[in-house]
Design goal:
The protein is an all-alpha fold. The protein has helices at 5-12, 23-32, 42-52, 60-65.
């Protein structure tokens, strides 16, 4: 059975059309918005870093200072 989203929104009184929430749409928004990609192959990351530089969120020094989830359970 097909779902009529437009009729449901009309009944609930929600405004207008909903945007595309698919994974493809999210990845296109990231690509067009010049955001950092989520997943790339090692070769693609190498190319991306060469073109855009390394973002601050990918610095190892910053990541190394954060504790991992399993480190909270390890006795000191």
């Amino acid at each position: 059975m097909a779902v009529n989203h437009r009729a449901i929104r009309k009944i609930l009184g929600e405004p207008g059309e909903q945007g595309d929430t698919s994974l493809r749409a999210h990845s296109m928004q990231r690509a067009l918005g010049k955001q950092v990609p989520k997943t790339l192959t090692p070769y693609e990351w190498e190319q991306w870093y060469a073109e855009h530089g390394v973002p601050e969120t990918h610095n190892k020094s910053e990541r190394a200072s954060r504790r991992r989830w399993w480190q909270f359970w390890v006795a000191k």
